[in-house]
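call fold(seq) -> tokens
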Amino acid sequence: MRRQAAQIGMDQAEQWVALTDGGAVLDTLMDVFFPCGVRMLDFDHAAEHLGNLAKAYCGVDAPAAADLTDRWSHRMKHEAGVAILGELEALDL
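ret:
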């Protein structure tokens, strides 16, 4: 990967950004091949993770989980990850 990245001038970039799905395998690859890169989780995968959390949090109440997923995803999209992180940290687990 580094060889291909060098061919398109990646070594000249001031900042490397890696858009990932949040998988552990990709994190390992980024550590090895792009250690200076800033990792970003793509929105669709972040929303999927929020949906899984909402299902676990709401239990068998599927409509409540869907509503919570929609609310969290909307907030994350419009207010960024820091805003949703604060709301998640405030959950009564």
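The chain has a mean pLDDT of 89.
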